[in-house]
Amino acid sequence: MPGILENLMMGFDVALTPMNLLYSFIGALMGTIIGVLPGVGSAGALALMLPMIFKLDPVGSIIMLAAAYTGVMYGGSTASILLNVPGDTSAVVACLDGHQMAKQGRAGPALCIAAIGSYVAGTIAVVGLMVLAPFLADFALRFSSPEYFALFVFGLTAVCALAGKSLPKALIAMTVGLMISTVGTDLMGARRFVFGVSDLQEGITFLSVPLGLFAISEVIINARAIRKGVKPEVIKHRIFISLKEITESISAIIRGGLIGFFVGVLPGAGAGIAAFISYSVEVQVSKHPEKFGTGIIQGVAGPESANNAASAGAMVPMLALGIPGSATTAVMLGAFLIIDVQPGPLLFMQRPDIVWGLIAALYIGNIMLLIFNLPMIGVFVRILYLPMRWLLPGIVVIAATGVFSANNAIMDLLFMCVLGAIGYYFRKYEYPLAPIILGTVLGDNMENAFRQSMMMTQGNFIEIIERPIVAVLFTMSILSLFLPQLIRLATKRQISAEEDV
Amino acid sequence: MGQRLKQYLFQGDRMIATILAIIFVLYALEAGTISRTHFQDKVGPGTFPELLAAFGLIMIGCFFFDVFRGKGETYEKCEGFIGEIKGVAILFMSFAYVFLLDLLSYPIATFLFTTLAVKFLGERTWWVSALVGVVLTGGCYSFFVSFLGINFSTGDFWLMILGE
User: Fold this and answer.
1) Which one of B57, B65, B78, B94 makes the best mutation probe of the A interface by having the most chain A beta carbons within 10 Å?
2) What is the tens place of the pLDDT at every residue in A383-400?
3) Nearest CA-CA partner of A130 in A267, A316, A344, A329
4) How many CB pairs under 8 A join A and B?
């Protein structure tokens, strides 16, 4: 421990020079701005900033990228909360309760708790990164395909169990999401559900799914209301968060921070999955699970903390083993290689200035975000005072531009519109949207993990579920799926028995 | 009988389930044409989609079982086909925008879409609609194209006119 503190002090010495603080500020600012826009994403944002590395000093450039990474994570949720336009996979969950809060005039508290949660969880994750990095990197390597498959099953079932009133509807929605993910070329090169359309060979671009389901369906609902002559409610938006809201969110933030960090450590899991798992855990532990999706602050605090912590967690395998767990850390790895630094077990000994400078920069980046974003919340919230008739076409244009910029394909835009229609009717008839998104996010990885597991065991599924981590995760999946139903049934019976008496 | 069946299968959330059941069947049929094995492996590219289709159909069955037990929800009546189409007019405008993007170029298509959509959504004057269109188009174009360096279509129509 004294060694860690000494190293951390050295890291702060490196990161706290005026020039490096400036780099950190620029990184956080650019990350937030780019994060707000759909389509670019954290990997894209970092890739856009990569050429700057050639002009900056090595430590400064890594510090700027680290700050940008945390900035993108926060920026993505701003558009989700205000406009129901998720900037990235990890920001999708913020649409569920964050946008509902904004509709109720609580956009300020939602953005505040996202900033505070990001800061606290980022700090938890940085501490985890310092203390547990070598040990966790070793543990993450124990996760092979069967464990990943079980983790993905758990993620899906946990969200489905509590998404909406009807379990079959949630599971149907999940199946639709998984089906979307099967379109395109699979890991062995087989083309599926392509129907001769060359644009489909790469599969459906993920971003068109949340933007269609959330943003376009939101536009349709509001446009329909305007055309029907329903006058939009004049809502006075509260800018500041109350102490009660902060105290209500503390445990969700801590849970989100821990979940985010540990999920982030797993290569391939990513911030989006961390946010979804955190959301489902919050629903499970809440005394009022029925309020989730209606604008409950824990529904924003947990996932927002988780996605920020996951970005620091993802650094663990990258720094300790040289294995990038996500596209974003792969770009970071590229940045390391550009400045002639090879991440891996020897990095902590050979270039402690870079490693500890990066860890300190992540922490400073979180403080920058807090300083920069809290005063800006009032400005962000003013967007909601614009007339709906101006805002709605703007949402369509931003969403379309974002989706197009991801792949330069008109086909993706058509999918976005089709999914907008699907999202509209699903919302109208109370089919939950979260399982579709999660199915699309996890589908590819889940299928690959399933197939690799079956190959490993020569098609023997029993051998898969005999593995300890798999058994635990499958048990948790079954419990998360059926326990809430059983509790609901038992409560109903108890109430009717009491009424009979 | 026909009326009851129509009510049972095509009203409210049941209509979505019925459409999805048809899609799941078609998906299963297509999945059946994909190989179920891969070289020596027991699972191939068709296995997962087939399992998915089967699972989806079972869930549709569970949903209708719930409906049959009287757990189905009731929803406000649809406004008829024409009313429904009018209600989602902005979606059709979005589709038109997507097609025009390739044909007329990003700035022109975006300006046209935003101006028309703002007017359609109740803006009183054309010039305010056009002003909103200019601001939105200029803002998006300058940020995505000038700052982020993303390339958009220059418009097939103009290329055709110029004979390129």
Assistant:
1) B94
2) 777 888 888 898 899 888
3) A316
4) 177
